């Protein structure tokens, strides 16, 4: 019986700086207006997106923030949603923050992050007897210092956490951070052994599997089935989903069904920012999984949610209730 979704891991204060273009090394870039303080990280982004998709959905936020200005911002933003329970957020250290350089020409964003309290989040913060949930999403692997530590029995502490969740009868979901280099092979496969739903982007899938999925600006879609199956072979039990700008690909690990769906062709000027689109896609797929929808329908939720996110500057401001998101999905053609 459905009991709600928990989202654990990164809680971040985002400070977004608009710049005319991203500079070359050694060049000067001028910061414009407005400079925006917002929230980011897997917990803030995914849980607020879920809260907007379904205001009746029971949600629990799990992680660590500092007793400082950034922590207060995060707690205040989460408290604005009556269906988000913040009682499992601990207060230690200094709140993590990210300086986001937002290129006004390309709409791409470059991130400089201070891990802060996120590196303290560990197994001791998981109060299993107080988590009345049926699905736990954890993000991001490679950006949670204590959970990325090795474990002699499970491979990593993250893998141990996911195993403990399953022992509580809770389904598990993971996401990974992009751009962490060669640590993928050491940190991601151990977690996948205890993962029900793996929802990552094509660059993360490429680094996890070693299978080329992008050549410059071109997606190598022909390689995607092999990458999905390799991730399944690493231990994922139910769904492997990989998203990219061009669309999304999924594998139902039980039936063997492969799904490929294009992203929406959005009109010129529609995209205001890209920083939260991946987490929005993840939230849509998670909601589909939680509701017992087929993989293809869950991916449709993900594509619709990502398109909503792209309509606003911040990480979660563009998200809408599910019915409105699906109406947007019907408004524009697919790639």
From TrEMBL:
Organism: Luoshenia tenuis
Keywords assigned: Kinase, Transferase
GO molecular function: kinase activity
Protein name: Carbohydrate kinase family protein
A GO cellular component entry from the record: cytosol
Lineage per the UniProt record: Bacteria, Bacillati, Bacillota, Clostridia, Christensenellales
Domain of life: Bacteria
InterPro entries registered for this protein in UniProt: PfkB_dom (IPR011611), Ribokinase-like (IPR029056)
Residues annotated as domain Carbohydrate kinase PfkB: 26-318
């Amino acid at each position: 019986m459905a009991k709600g979704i928990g989202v654990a891991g990164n809680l971040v204060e985002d400070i977004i700086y608009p710049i005319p273009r991203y500079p070359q090394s050694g060049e000067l870039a001028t910061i414009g207006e407005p400079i925006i303080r917002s929230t980011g990280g897997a917990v803030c982004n995914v849980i607020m997106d879920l809260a907007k998709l379904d205001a009746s959905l029971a949600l629990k936020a799990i992680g660590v923030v500092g007793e400082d200005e950034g922590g207060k911002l995060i707690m205040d933003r989460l408290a604005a949603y009556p269906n988000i329970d913040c009682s499992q957020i601990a207060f230690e250290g200094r709140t993590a923050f990210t300086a986001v350089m937002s290129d006004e020409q390309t709409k791409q964003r470059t991130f400089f992050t201070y891990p802060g309290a996120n590196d303290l989040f560990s197994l001791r913060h998981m109060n299993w007897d107080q988590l009345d949930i049926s699905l736990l999403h954890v993000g991001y692997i490679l950006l949670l210092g204590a959970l990325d530590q090795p474990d002699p029995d499970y491979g990593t502490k993250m893998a141990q956490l996911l195993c403990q969740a399953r022992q509580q009868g809770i389904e598990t979901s993971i996401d990974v951070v992009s751009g962490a280099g060669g640590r993928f092979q050491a940190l991601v496969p151990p977690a996948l052994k205890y993962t029900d739903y793996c929802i990552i982007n094509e660059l993360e899938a490429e680094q996890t599997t070693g299978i080329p999925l992008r050549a410059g600006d071109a997606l190598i879609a022909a390689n995607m089935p092999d990458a999905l199956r390799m991730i399944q072979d690493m231990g994922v039990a139910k769904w492997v989903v990989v998203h990219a700008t061009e669309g999304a690909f999924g594998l139902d690990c039980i039936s063997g069904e492969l799904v490929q769906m294009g992203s929406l062709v959005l009109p010129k000027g529609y995209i205001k920012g890209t920083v939260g689109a991946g987490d929005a896609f993840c939230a849509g797929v998670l909601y589909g999984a939680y509701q017992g929808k087929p993989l293809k329908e869950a991916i449709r939720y993900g594509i619709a949610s990502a398109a909503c996110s792209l309509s606003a500057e911040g990480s979660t401001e563009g998200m809408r209730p599910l019915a409105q998101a699906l109406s947007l999905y019907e408004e524009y053609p697919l790639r």
